[in-house]
Structure formats: structure tokens, C-alpha cells
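Backbone-to-sequence.
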């Protein structure tokens, strides 16, 4: 627990002598207060073991986006297999994307399109778990990638107070598994706070309910003393400033210029603009869920309603990050639980297909402007070495400067590898 003190000579009803205190719930590993966490990070920096200041914006197209009409239109395939929305040319010679993504096509030279991503599971639930955790784990005990990052880095950014792991929209299997609830995603819509109330003892719930009022009182006390926090060392003062800081402003897209907001667009675009603001404020892993991709029929009509926001929002995000000098430090990942059947069905749609899936990336300081892997002639399976979910996870961990073979103690205290099989995607790192 974290305790802030102000030397105002008062005594609480339980006899706490001469000091007021504010307890703010667990901010990391059990028993590690925020000032101690800051000290530990400073020591890690001195040892040269700190992780890189990187962010991931993980765009989850739930429902299973078609791999054909997104990033592998394959117009050389037989007509019943190829993209039924045509294709859009990119700046990469000979490379196209689906015809409903003309704006993404324009920034494809800043992207890597993976055409051999596969895991083989065609069930929404277990396929989602596989991509989010790297495991076909029906019990959902394995931690998601965002929670692994939070465990490795600490749950709060040491400079801004920003949560390490934030989600916008619920995704199955995006939780901490056996790592524990401390490493859950922060949900700005309030679901995480709702879950927290169920899980925490009542005294800690009351601490959090009174947080804003107590912070206001502490702020007034500090202001009355001319902004001095006597008796605190540098790390304690830093912790104090984090809690009282303005990191919450990052969640408010209304603070952006209207031209920037219009550029991203509504709906998904607003979420992606918020994600960019969160990354800018020090958030390390942000998931954005945008559903509606389970297109068993009428895929052309379905894409007209879903692709427009993706095309505008994703292309604007990549361009905006690039213009702000943030793209090398921010990795954009676009994926879903599986692809769709290569052959168009009788309803002019595509069904579940885990043997070839959708994946594209941009930025992160990785090698962009390329196509990785190749699909078979009828876009059914990888024609090159398959890239698996653990390979994607290993690539992300490497980007952060983390050992992709890192271990954390499991529930029984045994050191356990987060990834047992994956290796970084060679073409990217």
C-alpha cells in the first residue's frame, strides 16, 4: 500500500499520531509501494536493465476479420476465392490490400503485412484466447500479453502515473490469469473499477471511494505550505506528484484540436485518437476492440459498414504517429481471433477459419514496408513457415527490450516461462 503523509499535527480516530494519511491501493508487486517502485526502477536504469520506452496499440477486430479482403486480396486466385471487394495499390511495388481500405493502402509502406499468421482454431472463444495469450487455454489461466507487460514493467508509468495496461472495450482472455488481478487492464469505462470493488477488501474499497476527496485535502494542505512536501525524499515527492498529476487528461479527446478529431473520425477513430494520447502520456499497452467482423453472409455490405472506420482511423493513427515522431516508439497491431474461409459461401460471406488469420503491424522501431510470409494459391493456409501467436508475442516483448523467455512465479511460486515455443519474427527485428 502507498501512504502519503502531511505534517499538520492532527490525529485520526484510530490514534494515528500527528499525521493524516491516504492509502492508495496496490500499485505493483505485493508489498511494493509506489515510492519503492520508483526507487527500484531508478536502480534498474543505473544497472542498464530498464525496458525501452515503447507502447503498443493493439487493435482487435473481434468476430474474425477476413484475411482476404483486408491484407491478402490475392487477385490471382480463382474467382470464388479472391477478394470480392477488389484491391487497392500500395506504395510497395506489387503489393495490394483489400479494395475497401484505400487509405490504409497509402500508408502500407509504414506497415508490415503478415500473410502466414495461423493457429488452426476456428472457435471464437478459444481462438481469441490463443491470440491474446499464446496458448490454446480453455481454462483461461494464462496471462494476456498486456498483463505480462504490466508485470514486467510495473502497473504504473513512473513519470506520468499513467496505467501501464489500458483497454477500451472488453476482449475475452485479455486478463492477467494466474499473475493476479493487480495486472489487469485499466478500463476507463469503469468495468475494471467495478471488478475491483468485488475483489478488494472493504477497507481498501473505502480508501478508493474517498480518493478524490482526500487528494483535494492533501492538495490544499500542500498549497497552503507553499507547495513544499517536507519530510519526503525525492521518490516520495515523485509518487505524490503522480497521483495528483493530470494524466487523466490523456483520456479526454476533446482536448485535441477539432481538425485532428475530424481526421480520425467518429467511433473507432475516437478510440484510436485516445490510444495515441495514452501512448503519448506513457501508457505501454492499449487494446482497442472494434467488433462486427463475423460476416457469414453479405460480406460486401458488412465491409461497407465496418471497413470505413478502420480505414480512416488506422491510416490516420499511423500518419499522426509518424508526423509526431512517435511511430518508432509505438507499435500498432491489427488482428483478430481468426480469418475467414477462403471460398465464398452460398450467402456471399465467409465462415470461421483458423488455418490462416489476419495480422498487420506498423511502427515500433521494427522493419516495415514489407510483406511477411505467403499464403497458398487459394489463400487457405500458409505457403511459407507459419507465424504463430507466440511468435507475435515474442516480437512485442523483444521490442520492449524484454527477454521473450522471461519467467514469473506461478501460483505455487515456481518460475514459469511466459512463452514456451515462440521466437521473434525474424523479418521484423
Amino acid at each position: 500500500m502507498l501512504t502519503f503523509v502531511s505534517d499538520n499535527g492532527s490525529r485520526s480516530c484510530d490514534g494515528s499520531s500527528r499525521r493524516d494519511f491516504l492509502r492508495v491501493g496496490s500499485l505493483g508487486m505485493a508489498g511494493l509501494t509506489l515510492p519503492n517502485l520508483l526507487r527500484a526502477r531508478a536502480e534498474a536504469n543505473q544497472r542498464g536493465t530498464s525496458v525501452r520506452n515503447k507502447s503498443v496499440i493493439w487493435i482487435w477486430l473481434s468476430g474474425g476479420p477476413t484475411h482476404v479482403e483486408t491484407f491478402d486480396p490475392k487477385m490471382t486466385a480463382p474467382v470464388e476465392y479472391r477478394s470480392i471487394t477488389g484491391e487497392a495499390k500500395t506504395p510497395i511495388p506489387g503489393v495490394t490490400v483489400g479494395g475497401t481500405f484505400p487509405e490504409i493502402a497509402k500508408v502500407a509502406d509504414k506497415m508490415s503485412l503478415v500473410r502466414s499468421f495461423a493457429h488452426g482454431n476456428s472457435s471464437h472463444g478459444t481462438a481469441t484466447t490463443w491470440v491474446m495469450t499464446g496458448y490454446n487455454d480453455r481454462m483461461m489461466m494464462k496471462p494476456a500479453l498486456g498483463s505480462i507487460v504490466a508485470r514486467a514493467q510495473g502497473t504504473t508509468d513512473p513519470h506520468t502515473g499513467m496505467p501501464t495496461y489500458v483497454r477500451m472495450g472488453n476482449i475475452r482472455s485479455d486478463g492477467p490469469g494466474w499473475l493476479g488481478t493487480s495486472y489487469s487492464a485499466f478500463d476507463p469505462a469503469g468495468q475494471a473499477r467495478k471488478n475491483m470493488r468485488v475483489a478488494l477488501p472493504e477497507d481498501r474499497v473505502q480508501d478508493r471511494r474517498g480518493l478524490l476527496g482526500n487528494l483535494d485535502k492533501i492538495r490544499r494542505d500542500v498549497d497552503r505550505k507553499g507547495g513544499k512536501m517536507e519530510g519526503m525524499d525525492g521518490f516520495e515527492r515523485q509518487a505524490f506528484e503522480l497521483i495528483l498529476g493530470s494524466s487523466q487528461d490523456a483520456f479526454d479527446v476533446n482536448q485535441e484540436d477539432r481538425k485532428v478529431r475530424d481526421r480520425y473520425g467518429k467511433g473507432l477513430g475516437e478510440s484510436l485518437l485516445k490510444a495515441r494520447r495514452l501512448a503519448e502520456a506513457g501508457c505501454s499497452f492499449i487494446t482497442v476492440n472494434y467488433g462486427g467482423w463475423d460476416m457469414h453472409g453479405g460480406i460486401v455490405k458488412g465491409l461497407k459498414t465496418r471497413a470505413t472506420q478502420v480505414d480512416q482511423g488506422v491510416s490516420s493513427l499511423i500518419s499522426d504517429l509518424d508526423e509526431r515522431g512517435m511511430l518508432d516508439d509505438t507499435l500498432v497491431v491489427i488482428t483478430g481471433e481468426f480469418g475467414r474461409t477462403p471460398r465464398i459461401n452460398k450467402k456471399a460471406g465467409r465462415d470461421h477459419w483458423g488455418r490462416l488469420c489476419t495480422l498487420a503491424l506498423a511502427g515500433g522501431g521494427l522493419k516495415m514496408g514489407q510483406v511477411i510470409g505467403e499464403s497458398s494459391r487459394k489463400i487457405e493456409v500458409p505457403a511459407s513457415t507459419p507465424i504463430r501467436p507466440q511468435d507475435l508475442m515474442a516480437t512485442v516483448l523483444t521490442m520492449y527490450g524484454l527477454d521473450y523467455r522471461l519467467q514469473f512465479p506461478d501460483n505455487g511460486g515456481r518460475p514459469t516461462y511466459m512463452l514456451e515455443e515462440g521466437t521473434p519474427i525474424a523479418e521484423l527485428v
